[in-house]
Amino acid sequence: xxxxxxxxxxGICAVIITVTLLxxxxxxxxxxxxxxxxxxxxxxxxxxxxxxxxxxxxxxNGSETYMYLPLSSLPLxxxxxxxxxxxxxxxxxxxxxxxxxxxxxxxxxxxGAGMALIVSSLFNSVEPxxxxxxxxxxxxHLFHSLLVIIGAYIAMSGEVRFKKKHMLTTLAGLGLLGWxxxxxxxxxxxxxxxxxxxxxIEYGTNYFxxxxxxxxxxxxxxxxxxxxxxxxxxxxxxxELVFYLPLIKRDKKYLAEQNQA
Length: 261
Hints:
Layout: H1 4-27, H2 31-53, E1 55-58, E2 65-68, H3 78-91, H4 95-118, H5 135-157, H6 165-187, E3 190-194, E4 197-203, H7 222-260
Antiparallel strand pairs: 1-2, 3-4
Helix pairs in contact: 1-5, 2-3, 2-5, 3-4, 4-5, 4-6, 6-7
């Protein structure tokens, strides 16, 4: 993280996002058409993830081999789950539920994927020397760039009229997903017991960053974890205010003008 290769990729992603959004702003395609393309790209992205990370692992006695996808590679991060949301937003027929989902995606795609690009976890598994030769490097950066573009175009398209209630529904959605991640991270961990007492954890996942900080700050006491969760909650609320309030004001003005016309 924050290596020369990382900064080069950030520059590439910035160019891709900027050029694509300028193109979309000029052409103004329907959001559904953009989501059509996004659906295809999301499927390709997941195929690359599975194809590059799945392993052939021998059994303990060496008599058989098994295919194995590491637990950390399961599509349970917020950005990975966006693939499901992209398909749902494209094919959902209930307009109110679709609007709520798109409003959720607007913030979480931009902020979540943007943070994933800046605080990159990719280089924990890919050596900097392979930053431009490993397929995973391309998948990681291009997929997260795609999510930023989707989130931005949801706002640019004008097909979603943002309301104050979307701040609450987004907060509730993130809360439910974050709470579920606590159970998922525990299920995916590898505990070591001695005399039926938990001694240590040999391996654990960190979906939604609810168990470990993304910047490596160690938590050694339970109250550290509660404080960390509180900081995450405050950060989410601040980001919601920053992202939603300008659009709520914009759409309130638009609806007022429509009513007067």
